[in-house]
Amino acid sequence: MSVHPKPAAAPSPGTGLAARGLVAHHGRVEVLHGLDLDVPAGALVALVGANGAGKTTLLRTLSGVHPATRGSITLAGVPIEGRSSAWRVRAGICQVPEGRQVFGPMTVEDNLRLGAFTQDAAWVEDGMAEMYALFPVLRDKARLAAGMLSGGQQQMLAMARALMGRPRVLLLDEPSMGLAPLIVEEIFDVISRLRAGGRTILLVEQNAHAALSLCDRAYVMETGRIVLSGTGPELLADPQVQQAYLGM
Fold this sequence. Notes:
Blueprint: E1 17-26, E2 29-39, E3 44-48, H1 55-63, E4 70-75, E5 78-79, H2 85-91, E6 93-96, H3 108-115, H4 121-134, H5 136-140, H6 151-163, E7 169-173, H7 181-196, E8 201-204, H8 208-214, E9 217-222, E10 225-230, H9 232-236, H10 239-245
Parallel strand pairs: 3-8, 3-9, 6-7, 7-8
Antiparallel strand pairs: 1-2, 1-4, 4-5, 9-10
Helix pairs in contact: 3-6
């Protein structure tokens, strides 16, 4: 008998990820206060806010790593809030965690293959070729231990590993954190290409200007609440956002 339950209902392609009234706690402290969020299929949605606003907790709650206390989460209209993180990966939610968290002793290639553990073996080689085309440096480093890569290369590996899961929704947590400007430019170029290819992405990013310039829609989060939402251009032009996050 399989220890990996399969989705009870197949998500339809027309809708994405949504949360309604989402509440989560750290111990007795409530850190998400009834959030509503929509990530439409094929859209890049950015989530910006100060450190400690609850952005990472929100991503972890959506991916099932952190439990929700109340509220609903749906993937293509299918309720998933009671499902495990392993179930959600199989259903199509893949997260690139803050700090990359690659498997350092394993090779780059093995990290990528591990990312495809939910996929048919027949697809894996095609997936590897896609990732090496998207991130050429990983092909050159394929036999090296992931821990020997630079920070930027590890970030690319973490993104490629998640993409090997063929996600319906890709959750990106601070992909530019701690990276040199040229590497940040490369990372955002890849995100732009993924968006152009129709990927559904929820991006948490400290570089608010870059995130808002790229996204289809954005949310501003403060102390566990969504306080503003709109298109990227709308929030870039908002005086409150300019003062708080863009240094203007």
